[in-house]
Amino acid sequence: MIELIGVSKRFGDTTAVDDISLRVERGELCVLVGTSGCGKSTTLRMINRLIEHSDGEIHIDGQQIRDFREETLRRRMGYAIQSTGLFPHWTVARNIGLVPRLLKWPPARIRKRVEELMAMLGLSMEEFAGKYPRQLSGGQAQRVGVARALAADPDILLMDEPFGALDPITRETLQHELRELQSRLQKTIVFVTHDMDEALRLADRLVVMDGGRIRQQGHPLELLREPADAFVESLLGGEDRGLKEAALLTVGERMMPLSPRLLPRERISRHATLREALSMMLWRHAERLAVVDDEDMPVGELSLRQLVGAKHHE
Amino acid sequence: MRASRESESGSSDTEERSKGGVNAEVVNKEVINKEAVNRDSPRPNVVLVSLLLATLVAWSGLDAVSVAPNRIVPGQGHAAWDVAGWPGFLLSLVPMLAVLALAWRPDRRRLRWALGLAVAMLAALPAWLALASARLVDADLPQARMGVGAGVWVALFLLLLALIELRTRLALPRTLGWSLLLVPLASLAAWLTFGLAPLALRQEFLTRRDGFIAAIVEHLLLVGAAVGVSLVLGVLLALAMRRWARCRTLGFAVLNFLQTIPSLALFGLLLAPLAWLGAHVEWLAALGVSGIGAAPALLALVGYSLLPMVRNTFVALDEVDPGVIDAARGMGMSRGQVFRQVRLPLAAPVILEGIRITTVQAIGLTAVAALIGAGGLGTFIFQGLGQAAMDMVLLGALPILVMALIADALLGALTDLTRQGEAT
Ligand SMILES: Nc1ncnc2c1ncn2[C@@H]1O[C@H](COP(=O)(O)OP(=O)(O)OP(=O)(O)O)[C@@H](O)[C@H]1O
Ligand SMILES: [Mg+2]
After folding, report:
1. Contact between A8 and A18 (Cβ < 8 Å)
2. B323 to chain A: which residues are within 8 Å by CB?
3. What CA–CA distances, in Å, run from A132 to A88, A127, B14?
4. Is A314 part of any domain?
5. Farthest CA pair distance, chain B
6. Residue A43 counted as domain residue
7. In the prediction, which pLDDT does B285 show?
8. Confidence class of residue B7 from pLDDT cuts 50, 70 and 90?
9. Residue A119 lies in a domain
10. Which of A220, B252, B266, B332 has fewest C-beta within 10 Å?
11. What is B209-423's CATH topology?
12. Are B111 and B40 spatial neighbours (Cβ–Cβ below 8 Å)?
């Protein structure tokens, strides 16, 4: 659990972060969004004391972060950044094993942990363990960055645009993997991104920042449906908000049971989003879709009226 | 040579991404170079062709040797055909023409032949000189001396360049390239032992054997001390400059200024204050400090060495990717750990580069230091200049050249070693 209470940060005359309060529960994935220079990275880096906060209090599991030694505090938290910050003179395996080594784990345990993590992130041991960061593609390097952050199994993960500068497909894969990891491992994650779709897809709690202050925070759907002001509304996509919301809802939530009518030919998975369903309708010129389960067995149907009417503001 | 090596590793960089590993790297280099050679094969290798043409011209147009009845009289020049007669001269052209022909339509096999021929020609040069001494030096004149002529010097130089070009084209490893030179060196050693008695350089050496060894030792000691002191001081200064901005501007201003003073003037400037110190401070005098000799030379050498050392160390430490440092601290490394495990190893290649530049520069500058009585190989150069004895100048200059080349190669190889992880 991370708690910020009235935290500010001033660099000389400029106030980078201005009196923010934020609480991230255990197992929660909190995403910070906002325009460039609004203080997201500063907020993140105050939590692991790469930047010392000027005012307020920051607590980790109820304890002030200033009560810890800096190094001890940081070794308890995973930290992943956009440039990956991998050490170019170390192999992938050595990079991943960094924090366990700092924590003086026995070598055998470190080796086992590295193997485990590489498997978890889909990096084959034989192929990648001995490689140097320069020999990796952008996506592979980002995976190694995430693996390194997870290495000592920290309760808290701080991620500053960890999937930046990746193509949309790799990015989506990694987002998916992060969600998977999170549902299994139940970390407390603070995640910074510029990509609103990424933010909406990942967040349990979305925090919109502007000029060093928090404009609004809450569940993504909450913010989409009731934006506090025009800034939040436009940041969340303005006119596109309908589609963004549809991307958060699944077909399974809104489908109707199978009717005696003829089953439509177009099929869609119950786990697909409403946005995907709408796209399929537009593309196939279909008003009704058959909804299927994982075994491709029909379990219901979805009509355009249901899709649209299923939304809350009817 | 440096530039071409870098372009080489640059071109293989992308390939290695996909394969990696030591073996793959070697294989890739082979493949790339085969491709490069194949692509070139219809076209002449311009570098080799021009080098060999120039060698031909120098060999035929310039004096091969000069012979004098004794040390004082200026020598009489002899062309290449005087050395071996017309048939022998024409025969000596054959390997050069052969390399020219091979370079005209180069492929890997032909270039290997060319490499073999170039090494053979280098190895044959001492034999050529021995032939000249047998045919042109009057055996009845024990004082007679033979000097190496411009033609042979130029041919030696151009053939070495050709060797470097061939090594690069064939992508031979550095160590193999260097060991190729062992063949000509062995040949030189053999001929010096068993023949070539009238060779002026050899006679100069024999008359000054003890002085020569002592001079080399002095030279090396001065260079070693200068580089060692400036390394320690340089690293400390660079660290101070990184910490305090004021220190940075001031430090670079002073060091840049030092660098602009001509070396002779700096030696001169140090003369007076050091002479005074030597005369007035007893413990300094006991240490051998005086206006002339090793002390002022060392001071001046350190003064010059400091700038490249500090600049490279500073830049190297300062330009380590801030993202990497940020990550290192974010992972929970202490300041000391960040410096020792991340910043320093990443800076090492550039720091070593600074040491290389400094060492090569100091080897040359130490020659000048002979003027203020510091000893070293420069003594021969200046004495030789004073007596208009070119061979004595060479006796001082050649070892300096060789020392510089060896230092350059060794430190260059060390730099490559430290770079390994990142560059490949
Ligand atoms: N070390 C520093 N010294 C002075 N000002 C700083 C420093 N770090 C950040 N700032 C300022 O604080 C403000 C917030 O910076 P921060 O890096 O947190 O923005 P950000 O939201 O992460 O932006 P981006 O999305 O571009 O990464 C900026 O105006 C920046 O100029
Ligand atoms: Mg940022």
Report:
1. yes
2. 81, 83-85
3. 6, 11, 13
4. no
5. 83
6. yes
7. 67
8. very low
9. yes
10. B252
11. MetI-like fold (1.10.3720)
12. no
Q: What is the pLDDT of residue B136?
A: 83
Q: Which of B84, B88, B94, B83 is nearest to B56 (CA)?
A: B94
0.90 exceeded by pTM:
no
Rounded Cα distance between A255 and A274, Å, is 10
- Sheet holding A267-269: strands in order across? A267-269, A288-292, A298-303
8 A C-beta contact, residue A86 and residue A95? yes
| Tokens 């946005």 sit on residue | A275
The band of B16, judged by pLDDT with boundaries at 50, 70 and 90, is very low
From the CA of A45, give the closest atom in ligand 1: 18
Number of domains in chain A: 2
How much of chain B is in helix, strand and coil states, percent to nearest 5?
A: 80, 5, 15
Question: Using a CB-CB distance cutoff of 8 angstroms, which residues of chain A are in contact with residue B20?
Answer: 130-131, 135
List strand residue ranges (DSSP E) for A75-202, in order. Answer: 77-81, 156-160, 188-192
Are A260 and A233 in the same domain? no
pLDDT of residue B263: 66
Place of tokens 């050496």: B205
CA distance B295 to chain A (A): 41
Query: What does the alpha-carbon distance between residue B339 and residue B343 come to, in Å, rounded to a whole number?
Result: 5
What CA–CA distance (Å, rounded) separates B109 from B91?
A: 24
* R_g of chain B, CA atoms, integer Å: 26
Residue of A188, A113, A83, A153 lying closest to B327 (CA atoms): A83
Q: Rounded CA gap, B144 and B415, in Å?
A: 47
**Cα distance between residue A7 and residue B239, in whole Å:** 35
Q: For residue A297, count CB atoms less than 10 angstroms from its CB and return exposed for 0-12, middle for 13-18, buried for 19 or more.
A: exposed
Is residue A56 left, alpha or beta, with left meaning phi > 0 and alpha meaning psi from -120 to 50? left
Q: Is the CB of A37 under 6 A from ligand 1?
A: yes
Structural domain span for residue A227: 2-244
CA distance B380 to B368: 11
